Give the backbone structure.
Amino acid sequence: MTGMSGAGKTTLATQVKTGLEAEGFKVAIVDGDVYRQTLCSDLGFSKEDRLENVKRLGRFAHAMAPDFDVVLLAAINPYEVGRHILKTAYNAKLLFLDCALDVLVQRDTKGLYKRALLDPQDPDYMPAFTGISDPFERPADADLILDTAQQTIKECADTVVQYLRNDLAKSDEDKTFLDFLSRLKEQAFLFGEKKDKSQDYLHKTKLFRGLFELNNQELYQFVFGECRDSLHFEEWLKNRMGEVAFEEAKKMFLGIDTVGNKFSEAYTYQILTTDQLDFWNNEGFLVVPQAVDAGDCDRVKTEICRQLGVDPANRDTWCPAVANWQGILLFSAKSEAEEAIRHNPTIRAVFEDLYRRKDLLSMRSPLGYMPPLSTGYPFRGSPLHWDIDMEIGPRYHIQGMVYLHDVEEVGGAFSLIPKMHHQFQSLIREHGGMHEAAEVLRTQHKEVKIAGKKGDLILWVETMPHAATPNESDKPRFVQYITYEQFRLT
């Protein structure tokens, strides 16, 4: 608490302590006037001594902090540099008690202003008095400002108690968030039985990536290569997103109840027709024609070419050597073009219809690029497979992609085996696992290639075996993958 003599620092600190203790908090007061007689009795009132006074009070308050929820430091602390010392060293909040000088002179509870206003030749004159013969620099960035000339001490105390109550709650949230970041970093280095495979933790990590707009590659590059500790982790997230977006994501993350996979009984469909829903339930996949505007598709296609250094008019550039292009997936830097499709309202409404719920979270997903085989590109897509995280297990989860141009059956089209999702569990039991079942299905050649137009949204349920097919056309294939996760806020 900073403010001129008589502004009410000691009185307010005492009432705030009483108010917080009534709510069960442990509170200590470090009063500058009191410690002038003990801890700082050797100091005068020069600027240097005043700053040394503040440093000592700060160190003393910080030493007390582990034993208390709040330590209130009440001192005049007239210089901005002194306040900056406490902010930088201890992340101290700054409360400025403002009060008009004429009110302080009139109030003059200690008779100090009377002495400071005497003739300098008077034997009772008080030199170097803050606000009269010595400067008091008004704080430029106080966390809370109260005018004790206009408000009663009770009104001020109620305001401060509420402020600190909120700040203490935020401190608990900060600790919870930092604990999760520490756990995430720790888990990244564990294997086998040592890893946390609980449903709650695994689902929460997925939602974390979605809310903070991370793909696995960039997340683990940072965790394995740079991350020092949880504070560094938090700062990295904040720098990536910007402070406002980070705080919004953090608030939502801390309010998430990870229990999901439940339909809403009172859901009203927005986009999909009865025929489309029946097809989805029977076949396990769906094509929604022209869900995305052609111009948005073109912009993402252009962005893929830019990131890969591909010139659509020059075949010699179609097989780039770029680290973030793996197989047929491009782990893209975030772009406005990509975000426009990821947050497309029609796509979101379709996912909401299929999940029958609104509380969905858009996840960062890779882009897709595949040159034609005729360029000498060795097809690097996965054969028929399931994208199921077996630590979580099979669930009602929907995957999707948008064709960014017309894709023929021979053009590296997406393929799947219709209706096969109904047989997922029996296939796994019969063949002893997903890998073994996929090997058998590959020999049966039952896949259907899904051709489509620019802007088509292709969706399939997680338990549907699927794959991209080799591109036997005369042009590259471009797609954007789309994923939503279910969540629930507490």
About this structure: The chain has a mean pLDDT of 90. The chain is about 40% helix and 15% strand. The chain has three domains: 9-151, 171-257, 274-489. The radius of gyration is 32 Å.
